Amino acid sequence: MVILAAIIGKFVYLAIAAAKGEIPPDNADLKLYQFLMINNLCIKHESWLHENEYRVLLPNIEKVLYGKRVPLDEIGVKIKSIFLGKYCSMRNKKKLFEISQKLGINIF
Predict the structure, then answer these.
(1) Which of 20, 33, 50, 67 has its CB 3.0 to 4.6 Å from that of 11, i.e. a possible disulfide?
(2) Are 82 and 60 in a shared domain?
(3) Which domain holds residue 83?
(4) Residue 11 class from Cβ within 10 Å (0-12 exposed, 13-18 middle, 19+ buried)?
(5) In this structure, are 65 and 84 located in the same domain?
(6) Which tops the pLDDT comparison, 93 or 49?
(7) d(CA 6, CA 23)
(8) Is 33 exposed, middle or buried, given 0-12, 13-18 or 19+ CB atoms closer than 10 A?
(9) Handedness of CA 93, 77, 45, 4 (dihedral sign)
(10) Over the stretch 75-106, which tens digit does the pLDDT of each residue have?
(11) What is the DSSP string of 26-38?
(12) DSSP code for 27
């Protein structure tokens, strides 16, 4: 976590410097830290490999502050099945069961 915090801190510092015009937007360090940020957001630790899921990042064209839900068919993703986690609450299990019935997919 310390390394990730250092990456975030350096990226924010460089991004602000670029926004102020103190460094060019194609600065090599800025590009490196942009890559590291995206890499950390998109790639999960190997301990989560069994999850077989994807992280999807989309540009915030609409400038929505906290993000928004994106219909999966808009990005070409189709849900094949739902796997309940060990600590999934009964309330969420019921909701997910209803969703699985509506979509016609298996739930495990």
Answers:
(1) 33
(2) no
(3) 78-107
(4) buried
(5) no
(6) 93
(7) 20
(8) buried
(9) negative
(10) 888 888 999 989 999 999 999 999 999 999 99
(11) T-HHHHHHHHHHH
(12) -
